[in-house]
């Protein structure tokens, strides 16, 4: 029997596909020119503020738009004087096919969508801006960020609490073409549900009780810059269609207002939950998820990248010491303690541990605080006591479990009681009562 030829297995290189489209002018004064536009909404007309400006007199000021959605590219006439034609037929709105010819006045344009395939190789660097990591997973993320930060692509950052989603978002902004513009943050979980619409879109004076002045919302404030929507999974379901419309049309209307305002922004969103699963559960809109997850970035928890611990710890020590200060040394005993810990609070917990160690420890020896940060070693569960009844043993275990769980929960939520109550699906007043019972709050 002949030997079968050996198949060489090539390494699989992760790729990102950025959807873009090209409009080629076939007829008109700008014949032969090509316009590559990567945005989700493309406005075409005679006005200077359109994405594609056509100088022909027969073209209306804002003639038509092309909107990318889950089904493809939708061509929509914007009440033009001479109408918009698709392959010779006048339309109000219709989906485009590759090679379709659009006619606006006497100008003809050919529509050619395409995807830019970006291969993502691990970065050779151990940092990207202030982000640090020598593990393969982090260097893959750095390689991805190096490629997509300069683009206009919408980014969805997923990761547990404390993994540094906000720092990633700010770093993307700092490496983008919008770095000179504002970076506006909205924590969707920290704003009361009845105020989140005003927080995002602004409001006019008298729009509701307490609206004593006109107020700009986050979308207006982020104009020409980046809007970071943190804790996106906390956005109320009834507000999600309004956010979707803004992302599609890049236009907003303040609460209580009638005037439409255009905004030029890049959106970065973050969530600690699996949004795809939230879509399946009916708690998040599928079309909004599609719009936001153009480029997904999944941050690993610290327990899955422990080879980065020494690098991160030394970085925190250097920052605490400051310029010219004495940097405490990391001995093997402390490094072993770091490696043995599960880090439920991720990088945020590590930073807190290092800061506590500097304050409480000696110049050359930092020790792990015994305040409940070490999830397993700090407070072991009680042993069974033969002198106690079943009920008494059970009460001791329940009490120890409550205390450990509450410490872990508050660490994950950065000591925000409202956020902790939402995460535990618990009434806020009851959570506060438990925290007081175990002397975890004053």
Helix/strand layout:
Layout: E1 15-27, E2 34-37, E3 41-45, E4 52-53, E5 64-69, E6 72-77, E7 84-86, E8 89-91, E9 93-95, E10 101-104, E11 107-119, E12 127-128, E13 131-132, H1 136-148, E14 155-158, H2 165-174, E15 183-187, H3 196-201, H4 218-221, E16 226-230, H5 240-249, E17 251-252, E18 261-262, E19 266-271, H6 275-280, H7 286-292, E20 295-298, H8 309-321, H9 332-340, H10 346-360, H11 390-412, H12 417-424, H13 428-437
Parallel strand pairs: 3-4, 14-19, 14-20, 15-16, 16-19
Antiparallel strand pairs: 1-2, 1-11, 3-5, 5-6, 6-9, 7-8, 7-10, 10-11, 12-13, 17-18
Helix pairs in contact: 8-10
What does this structure look like?
The strands form five sheets. A six-stranded antiparallel beta sheet has the order 2-1-11-10-7-8, with no helix packed on it. Strands 4-3-5-6-9 form a five-stranded mixed beta sheet. It has a five-stranded parallel beta sheet with strand order 15-16-19-14-20. It is elongated and about 95 Å long. Helix 8 (309-321) packs across helix 10 (346-360). Helices cover 30% and strands 21% of the residues. It starts with 14 loop residues before the first strand and ends in a 5-residue tail after the last helix. It is an alpha/beta fold and 442 residues long. It has helices at residues 136-148, 165-174, 196-201, 218-221, 240-249, 275-280, 286-292, 309-321, 332-340, 346-360, 390-412, 417-424, 428-437; strands at 15-27, 34-37, 41-45, 52-53, 64-69, 72-77, 84-86, 89-91, 93-95, 101-104, 107-119, 127-128, 131-132, 155-158, 183-187, 226-230, 251-252, 261-262, 266-271, 295-298.
């Amino acid at each position: 029997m002949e030997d079968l030829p050996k198949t060489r297995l090539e390494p699989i290189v992760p790729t990102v596909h950025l959807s873009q489209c090209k409009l080629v002018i076939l007829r008109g004064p700008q014949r032969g020119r090509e316009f590559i536009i990567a945005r989700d909404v493309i406005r075409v007309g005679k006005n200077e503020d359109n994405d594609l400006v056509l100088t022909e007199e027969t073209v209306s000021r804002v003639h038509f738009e092309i909107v990318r959605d889950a089904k493809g590219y939708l061509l929509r006439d914007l009440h033009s004087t001479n109408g918009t034609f698709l392959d010779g037929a006048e339309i109000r709105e219709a989906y485009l096919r590759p090679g379709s010819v659009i006619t606006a006045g006497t100008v003809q344009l050919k529509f050619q969508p395409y995807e830019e395939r970006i291969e993502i190789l691990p970065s050779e660097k151990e940092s990207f801006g202030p982000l640090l990591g020598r593990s393969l997973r982090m260097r893959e993320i750095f390689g991805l960020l190096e490629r997509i930060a300069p683009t206009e692509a919408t980014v969805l950052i997923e990761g547990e609490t404390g993994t540094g989603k906000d720092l990633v978002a700010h770093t993307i902004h700092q490496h983008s073409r919008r770095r000179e513009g504002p970076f506006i943050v909205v924590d969707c979980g920290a704003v009361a549900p009845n105020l989140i619409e005003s927080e995002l879109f602004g409001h006019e004076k008298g729009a509701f009780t307490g609206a004593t002045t006109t107020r700009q919302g986050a979308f207006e404030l982020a104009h020409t810059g980046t809007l970071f929507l943190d804790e996106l999974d906390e956005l109320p379901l009834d507000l999600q269609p309004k956010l979707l419309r803004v992302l599609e049309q890049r236009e907003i209307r303040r609460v209580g207002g009638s005037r439409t305002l255009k905004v030029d922004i890049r959106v970065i969103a973050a969530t600690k939950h699996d949004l795809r699963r939230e879509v399946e559960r009916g708690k998040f809109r599928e079309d909004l998820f599609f719009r936001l997850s153009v480029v997904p970035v999944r941050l690993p928890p610290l327990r899955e990248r422990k080879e980065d611990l020494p690098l991160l710890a030394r970085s925190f020590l250097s920052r605490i010491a400051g310029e010219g200060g004495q940097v405490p040394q990391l001995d093997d005993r402390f490094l072993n303690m770091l490696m043995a810990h599960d880090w439920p609070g991720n990088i945020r917990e590590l930073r807190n541990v290092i800061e506590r160690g500097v304050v409480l420890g000696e110049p050359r020896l930092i020790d792990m605080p015994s305040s409940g940060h070490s999830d397993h070693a700090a407070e072991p569960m009680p042993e069974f006591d033969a002198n106690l009844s079943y009920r008494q043993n059970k009460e001791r275990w329940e009490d120890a479990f409550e205390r450990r769980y509450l410490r872990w929960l508050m660490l994950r939520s950065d000591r925000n009681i409202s956020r902790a109550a939402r995460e535990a699906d618990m009434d806020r007043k009851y959570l506060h009562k438990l925290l007081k019972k175990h002397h975890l709050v004053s």
